[in-house]
């Protein structure tokens, strides 16, 4: 999986859920974003196993003091991890993706 090609899919998954402000305020929003992300990435990269973690905060908090990190030990020629940040006036969303290639 290539981060450059995967990032637009993650952003599309985020906006598909957060385009409705009332839906974004529900506890299920993070699950819906993770599921939409995994579905889009699996469709584009069917030979990868994908794990998604979503963090959703009200924008007025601004993510102040928030740090995130993901790491793994694996084959760097075929496996990857990356974070995608998205924000608007109401929400800050960070999706962490771990993708492991399967033969």
Q: Which features does this protein show?
A:
103 residues, alpha+beta, Ribosomal protein S3 C-terminal domain, three-stranded antiparallel β-sheet, 3 helices, 3 strands, globular
Could you explain how this protein is built, in words?
There is one protein chain. With 103 residues, this protein is an alpha+beta fold. The chain has a single domain, classed as Tctex-1 (Ribosomal protein S3 C-terminal domain, 2-Layer Sandwich). The chain has helices at 3-18, 21-24, 29-44, and strands spanning 48-58, 80-87, 91-101. Strand 2 (80-87) and strand 3 form a beta hairpin. The radius of gyration is 14 Å and the shape is globular. It starts with a helix and ends with a strand.
Strand order of the largest sheet: 1-3-2
CATH topology: Ribosomal protein S3 C-terminal domain
Q: Sketch the major β-sheet.
A: 3 strands, antiparallel
β-strand number: 3
**Reported CATH architecture:** 2-Layer Sandwich
> How would you state the average pLDDT, rounded?
87
Q: What structural class should be given to the helix and strand makeup?
A: alpha+beta
**N-to-C span:** 13 Å
Order of secondary-structure elements: HHHEEE
Instruction: State the helix count.
Output: 3
CATH-assigned homologous superfamily: Tctex-1
Q: Give the overall shape, derived from the CA principal axes.
A: globular
Give the strand content: 25-35%
Low-confidence stretches: none
Number of domains: 1
């Amino acid at each position: 999986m290539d981060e450059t090609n995967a990032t637009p899919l993650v952003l599309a998954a985020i906006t598909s859920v957060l385009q409705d402000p009332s839906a974004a305020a529900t506890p299920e929003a993070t699950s819906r974003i993770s599921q939409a992300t995994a579905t889009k990435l699996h469709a584009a990269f069917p030979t990868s196993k994908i794990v998604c973690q979503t963090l959703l905060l009200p924008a007025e908090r601004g993510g102040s003091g928030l740090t995130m990190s993901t790491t793994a030990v694996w084959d760097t020629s075929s496996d990857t991890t990356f974070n995608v940040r998205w924000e608007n006036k109401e929400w800050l969303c960070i999706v962490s993706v771990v993708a492991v290639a399967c033969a």
